[in-house]
Write a structure and sequence with these properties.
Blueprint (H helix, E strand, L loop, with lengths): L18 H38 L4 H7 L13 H11 L2 E4 L16 E13 H10 L7 E9 L2 E8 L1 H11 L6 H10 L7 E11 L2 E11 L6 H17 L5 E7 L3 E14 L2
Parallel strand pairs: 1-8
Antiparallel strand pairs: 2-8, 3-4, 4-5, 5-6, 5-7, 7-8
Length: 275
């Protein structure tokens, strides 16, 4: 409230010798204190409600942890170091530091990111092996942490914590998601309070001859469900661009099954990543 709008209450002049003046002071003070107490309770109650709602939707980090808005959905997929070793052995893939990457012969002044392509037929990876590889990547642009990937016949579920501060750079790296970089930056800025929020997505997905077939079933960020049409467009466009812009990646078929992914095609086995 501004100084101009503040009202002032002047105490009435009283005669100290008058017994009535003494009797009137206590009820006035008592009424004033009672009013302040009621007002404080109302304000405090309102703030508690706001905090609970904000915490439920993932806006207040500390409280959100208690309410579960920052706890990723448990998909029942665990992994160990043995799963990572198995993934690396099956795929022959190594992730090296970007600092050691050789110059890109096709792009002067740039470094190589993908190298050493390998073709396979019917490569089978378990959901635990894929989950292990993602969580062990330690890539500075990776937009999710604490990831679990669950595979079902024709379907994929992903949960984790959203690293919103990495999203804009990740989107740029994969070649965009159908919106301008300024729109992406604006969206990330407006949603900064969701950094670290739990993320969950479920859908039907497969790839045939580098063409992604995708149908979104459910998506949540914290306790918030983005509009399905926008979310579906972003995921489909981003996934398609990721396939098209990854050098040496040629997906003849990638089909999820019961706890596993079957892959036929070509992919780079040496990848240089920034940590």
């Amino acid at each position: 409230m501004s100084e101009d709008t503040k009202s002032t209450i002047e105490e009435p002049e009283t005669d100290e010798s008058s017994p009535d003046s003494v009797e009137l002071e206590k009820p006035i003070a008592k009424h004033k204190h009672r009013t302040l107490k009621i007002t404080s309770i109302v304000i405090a109650s309102f703030l508690v409600v706001v905090l609970l709602i904000a915490g439920w939707f993932g806006f207040v980090p500390g409280l959100s942890n208690v309410l579960g808005a920052r706890t990723p959905k448990d998909l029942g997929v665990s992994w160990t170091q043995a799963d990572l070793v198995s993934y690396e052995k099956k795929t022959g893939t190594t992730f090296n530091s970007f600092e050691t990457a050789p110059p890109n012969p096709l792009k002067p002044g740039k470094k190589t990111i993908f190298a050493d392509p390998k073709s396979v037929q019917g490569l089978e990876l378990t959901q635990s092996e894929i989950t292990a590889a993602i969580n062990s990547l330690d890539w500075e642009l990776q937009p999710l942490t604490n990831v679990q990937v669950r595979l079902t016949p024709g379907g994929v579920e992903v949960s984790g914590n959203l690293k919103l501060d990495r999203v804009a750079d990740f989107v740029s790296f994969i070649g965009g998601v159908g919106y301008s970089s300024s729109d992406v930056d604006k969206a990330v800025g407006l949603g900064d309070f969701l950094n670290g929020a739990a993320f969950y997505a479920k859908g039907q997905a497969s790839v045939t001859n580098n063409t992604l077939a995708f149908s979104l079933g459910q998506i949540q960020i914290g306790r918030f469900s983005p509009p399905a049409d926008i979310a579906s467009k972003v995921i489909f466009t981003g996934g398609s661009n990721g396939i098209d812009n990854t050098k040496y990646l040629d997906v003849k078929s990638a089909t999820p099954g019961d706890g596993k992914l079957n892959f036929t095609g070509t992919y780079p086995t040496t990848i240089y990543v920034k940590h």
